[in-house]
Amino acid sequence: MSKSDHISMSVIRRLPRYYRFLSELYEQKIDRISSTKLAQIMNITASQVRQDLNCFGGFGHQGYGYSVSQLKDEIKNILGLNNDYKAILIGSGNLGKAVAMHMNFEKLGFELIACFDSNEEKVGTKLNNISVKHENELEEFCRQNRVDTAFLCIPRVCVENMLDKLYSLGIKNYWNFSHYDINARYSDAVVENVHLSDNLMTLCYRINNSNQTNI
Amino acid sequence: MSKSDHISMSVIRRLPRYYRFLSELYEQKIDRISSTKLAQIMNITASQVRQDLNCFGGFGHQGYGYSVSQLKDEIKNILGLNNDYKAILIGSGNLGKAVAMHMNFEKLGFELIACFDSNEEKVGTKLNNISVKHENELEEFCRQNRVDTAFLCIPRVCVENMLDKLYSLGIKNYWNFSHYDINARYSDAVVENVHLSDNLMTLCYRINNSNQTNI
DNA sequence: TAGATTGTTAATCGATTAACAATC
DNA sequence: TAGATTGTTAATCGATTAACAATC
């Protein structure tokens, strides 16, 4: 139901943030908010708020502002958080375990239905209510179950082989924690990267340059 | 030694990616590369490569290209990865543990020197060679040791109190995994956020909209 | 020298901000 | 009605891309 068919990534990446702030306002039992006030809280401009929201339709009421609960729900729908995309986790190391245990998938549009590891010792262990399977069961599992997405929490050196297998099994969507460029190999894959090292290097740069005394 | 004093965040956030690709080329024993070839590998334009690198100085050689090892080292220096910023981890839950165990801090300009948790049961356990201390030892610790950065891996509800304490102890740099807006409270803090939920919501949106059949 | 490729300026593109008429 | 605030168009700003003279 979007007004225009192309929404820029800049806008899309701001949506979860709107959703977060609106959820907070909702918890605080605040009914309505103007673009000006919302912008203040979020430390952006009111213009941007209105411009962003109007990519998807006129959710506001002139002279009144926006209904918090309505707007929150609209954004929830736009993001598609009511979905139930079936996800499998590849790699049950520290990071994979943390991802499986820490995230509230059902509130984010996903359901984690299986976890795979190449390490025999991990097979059979449990992450929440998901038991870890051996990687050689992957093919069979994907044929028996619809799998929409793979969460990649394996070392960089293992990614290429694993990616080829997953892609050949029809998986096109990836939440990627590995330092590997999935889109360079499969340009039609939908990929969100979490590059923790990149992020920390950026912090390092910024710390360096925040200490600068202007001569 | 930068040519201009203001480097845009767009450029800064690309630096770790350059560093990653150059490190790979270096491992492959490739000596030199042109902006055109590097751009191809990284799936960006040659103009952008040259424009980005020239923010920091002329590292290239006309008619030749760039020396891989030199350029890699230059970017390493620009990012400041030779630093040894002292970091403490707040929160040793699943996520905190994964962060402590998974990251190669010394290659990223940091050293993890302590971890704190509010849970008595975790106190005394070990993450790699760091032992977990109780949060009430935090103040004393910060007075005895230089602490440059805090890695925040605690639930959203705990962040505000903890942040006030850390800030009052002089910590201005944060790697933030919590859904809390640190800069809204302390505008001079240097913050890099890792918002896993936001990232997964974005993936959800994109999966939704990649399935669209154009009518 | 001729060929290759940079550094840098100019042109284009897209995103953000400002302004204001429409309207509740 | 008057006041408030949106939706939307126009102006500005910044980032990306193209072009090319400089030079190895």
Strand neighbour order, sheet with most strands of chain A? 5-6-4-3-7-8-9
CATH level 1 class label of the largest domain in chain A: Alpha Beta
Any idea what the CATH architecture of the largest domain in chain A is?
A: 3-Layer(aba) Sandwich
Strand content of chain A: 15-25%
Mean pLDDT of chain A: 94
Radius of gyration of chain A: 21 Å
Helix/strand order of chain A: HEHHEHEHEEEHEHEHEH
**Model regions low in confidence, pLDDT < 50 over at least 5 residues of chain A:** none
Helix content percent band of chain A: 40-55%
Largest sheet of chain A: 7 strands, mixed
The total tally of domains of chain A equals: 2
Kindly report the name of the CATH homologous superfamily of the largest domain in chain A: NAD(P)-binding Rossmann-like Domain
- What is the subunit arrangement here? homodimer
Number of strands of chain A: 9
Number of helices of chain A: 9
Principal-axes shape call of chain A: globular
Gap from first CA to last CA of chain A: 55 Å
Helices and strands, with pairings:
Two copies of one chain form a homodimer.
Chain A: H1 9-27, E1 32-33, H2 35-42, H3 46-53, E2 66-67, H4 68-79, E3 85-90, H5 94-102, E4 110-117, E5 126-127, E6 130-134, H6 138-144, E7 149-152, H7 156-168, E8 173-176, H8 182-185, E9 190-193, H9 196-210
Helix pairs in contact in A: 1-4, 2-3
Chain A binds a DNA duplex (24 and 24 nucleotides) through residues 8, 10-11, 34-36, 45-48, 50-51, 53-54, 58, 60-66.
